[in-house]
Amino acid sequence: MLIALKSWLKLNTRADDPLYEYKKTGQSYYIEQAIDTYSCDIFHFIRSQSNRVLAEDICQKTWLTVVEKRHTYNQQNTPKAWLFSIARNALIDELRKTKRIVQLDDTTLIAAQSDNSHIDTLYQAMTQLPFLQREALMLQLEGFSLQEIAHITHQNHETIKTRLRYAKQHLKATMEPNDG
Predict the structure, then answer these.
(1) Among 130, 108, 135, 109, which Cα is nearest to 47's?
(2) Which residues contact 58 (CB under 8 A, 6 or more apart)?
(3) Do 154 and 109 contact (CB within 8 A), yes or no?
(4) At a CB cut-off of 8 Å and minimum separation 6, what does 169 contact?
(5) How much is the pTM?
(6) CB-based contact 42:142 (threshold 8 Å)
(7) Are 90 and 62 in contact (CB under 8 A)?
């Protein structure tokens, strides 16, 4: 009875790293806690890179991947960074499959142009960014550090800094009124 009580009490406390606890125990409580904690952030990030329907699908695929590959979680990563990496890879796979992203070479991905003409200037400027620049900018807006973005995207720190610099330069040029 004491063991049952201990396990019940443990399940009613929030884990600092629910993914690690899920990896160790496989108990659904921990995956539910992770979903509650990170789902909105994942959806917002994916939605910034695609449409609502695709974002919902990618979010579901992300959580299915977590369930299937829980043994690959490494506690050295932040849970959010690991989840964003899975979501990012699923999104890129889906965009490649539906031909909405083009790979120019080993390091350059560009998104197909959006046909949505009723969006504000900032959103329109962001959709015109190359995919990898927009991705880096959206990850930074999600609160990730340069090192975390580099880890999520499997790029080096300097590459991320460059992408962010070009993205911000493009947005600044687009948002500034033309005087000439």
Answers:
(1) 135
(2) 46, 50, 87, 90, 91, 94
(3) no
(4) none
(5) 0.62
(6) no
(7) yes
